[in-house]
Amino acid sequence: MKDFRNAIIECVPNFSEGVNMEVIKQITNAIETVKGVRLLDVDPGKATNRTVVTFVGDPQSVVDAAFLGIKKAGELIDMRNHKGEHPRMGATDVCPLIPVSGISMEDTVAFANQLAKRVGEELNIPVYLYEYAAKADYRSNLAVIRSGEYEGFAAKIVQPEWAPDYGAAVFNEKSGATVIGPRDFLIAYNVNLNTTSTRRANSVAFDIREKGRQKKDEKGKVVKDEKGEAVWEPGLLKSVKAIGWFIEEYGIAQISMNLTNMHTTPLHIAFDTCCERATARGLRVTGSELVGLVPLEAILEAGKYFLRKQQRSIGISEAEIIKIAVKSLGLDELTPFDPQKKIIEYCLKDTSTKKLADMTVTGFAAETASESPAPGGGSIAAYCGALGAALATMVANLSSHKKGWDSRWEEFSNHAVKGQALMAELMELVDEDTAAFNEIMSAFGLPKSNDEEKAARKAAIETATINAIKIPFRTMERAFESFDLIKAMVETGNPNSVTDAGVGALCARTAVKGAFLNVKINAQDLKEHPEVKPILEQAEQMNTDSDKIEQQIWGKVLGKIK
Q1: Mean pLDDT over residues 527-551, rounded?
Q2: How does pLDDT run across 134-152, given as a tens digit for each residue?
Q3: Domain total for the chain?
Q4: Which of 57, 97, 181, 484 could form an SS bridge with 61, CB 3.0 to 4.6 Å?
Q5: Is 107 known to be catalytic?
Q6: Active-site choice (86, 332, 484, 529)
Q7: Rounded Cα–Cα distance for residues 10 and 40 (Å)
């Protein structure tokens, strides 16, 4: 079974109330009762009598929160009295689920079905699935499903082709019907121009947007087809909507875009294409801005794109990649760009619990030296492994831009990317090892006053102990894996840094052997356990092999510094 606890999806329900702020507040309060979600935005519109709510979290928490929001809206909003300019069919008109990170669209479809089933069966609200969850092509488009709106749904819902996907085919007069489904993440993105002309900004927008512009003949008249409708010339970029406008606050014109599928047209491609078309029209792009939040992936891919254009290694820290993206896209031209406030994953970080990996070097050493038994040898072993991978990564990055080695930048960039991944996982294991120890202590603290409690306590101790064996074993695996990278850097990397790679090998060996001690001591009473026995056998082999590999690397290092 897949683990989605660290995955993130966004939910953007549209509720048919934009005037009564007390009703809106009660709906958002219901959403916020679910631990694991964060409310990001509430955007009411009086003319539309509609409020768009945005919240994010792990998939199950988001589904639970969305259900409570839909339930509360059904209780408080009476569609028989609703008027508004925006098309609508229910108290919760539409509820999109958008995968952000750690989850595929296919898996998001499963969560959309889970939510739709609960709404249909528990709340007696007819539900239609749309976009990627649609059961038929004609039902994928929201506008088609919503055609006829609330007033026409009593007649529509009894038609066989418009039976709801969940819930009875009975018109709910008070709540109407709801549309639920997963869609792609939409990035609202504006590119700044060195002009005040909306017309010129529009000319660039029409060049790039998927819809393009109306085709005109030599005399400037719109070309029409045999049906008398205008012929359109498509623009350069798929999944992009764009217009030009003038922003009085900044005194400039912008190309305002909606990127409806960031994988089809990523942020950086939209920006570079705007630059190309602006230059062709005698204009210049001066920067850009993101409206609302953006997934981390979009910013990282932009940073890596511009690094590759410079023939620079992409195996650098996440913070440095983001910095390159911000500067290359000019995201800080109009206002400061704060990654902690603009990147979804960063907004969701739990800062209430202090992590060992976030401590200063001095603080980590002091914490280790304290009277507490954790962090101990397991965490230190993982940290040694992280340092070994970090040193190898450093050599790769230094090699990637060594004078005279320009043609090899990508070779060393690939090495550095592997090193960053190993280092990141080993740093996570620093905290996971301490957490595993604490889990064992908690299990030992369980009550044991009767046979049932004793059995539960014994089972909990065994489960926690097996986990405490697997964690340092993972440290061994990752540290052992880093030997390949370290060896490559000794043999082919910048010769001026060969001793750095040699120290990395010593760190990796320490990590393997240190973690091995933790595997052994935690497995003392479970040596024949079916999960533990093969781990012990593999750990023994890695422990022996680490000595041999480190000595091989040591010999190569000494051979290069004679």
Answers
A1: 95
A2: 999 999 998 899 999 999 9
A3: 3
A4: 57
A5: no
A6: 86
A7: 10
